[in-house]
Structures are given as structure tokens and as C-alpha cells.
Amino acid sequence: MEIPPKSPDGSEKSPQSKELMTSNTASTLCISSRSESVWTSASRSKWDIYHKPVIVVSVGAAIFLFGMVITSLSCIQIKNKNVYKMCGPAFLSLGLMLLVCGLVWIPIIRKKQKQRQKSQFLQTLKSFFFNR
Asked: Where are the transmembrane segments (predicted)?
């Protein structure tokens, strides 16, 4: 008959309690795979929610304006006219792409926030079952 090894703190544990101790790995794995904002109900400021799309929109607008300046320089008789004709439209398109991506990102975040508020009850149920 084998004697189960003692735990480091010296207390004896039954095999059933050992199984219960190892069974919580699924909930730990599930919690670590999710972001903290899904599991916590702490409210975040508007800047915390919208800072990434605002940065993308502002960088896109700056690049777009820079592209407009470069393109307008190609209209003036300058030494490197061909370089401005090539780079101007490239900056225009890149800036416009970033600007549109940021502007589309904002309504997506708003929709997610509304869905999160509607499913508050569902989240509490999830956290109750997964955190056991």
C-alpha cells in the first residue's frame, strides 16, 4: 500500500481534493486566453476606448495633407518634378486609406460597446461558471 506524499505545508490531502485542485486549469486557461476587459466590469474612459482609431485618423489626415502638398509641388516648375509626381499620389492614397480605416473603426467599437452592455448578464454567468 502506497503512502501518498505529504504536501509542502505538511497537511494531508485526499486524492479527491488533488483532482479538484488540478481541475481548475481549464478555467485558468480560459481566463488567460481572454482579455481582461471582457471579464472585468470596470468602466473605461472614452480615451481608453477610442485612442487607437483617433491616432489612426490623425496620422492618416496628416499623411493625406502631406500628399496634397507634395502633389501641388509637382505643378510648380521645380528641378525634381518627376519625383513629386510619383510620391504625391502615393502619400495621398496611403493617407486616405488610414483615414478611412480609422473612421470605419469608430462605429465598430461603438457597436461592440453596445453589445457588451446588452450582454452584461451573460458575462456574469460566464465568469461565474469559468471562475469556479
From this structure: 54-78, 90-109
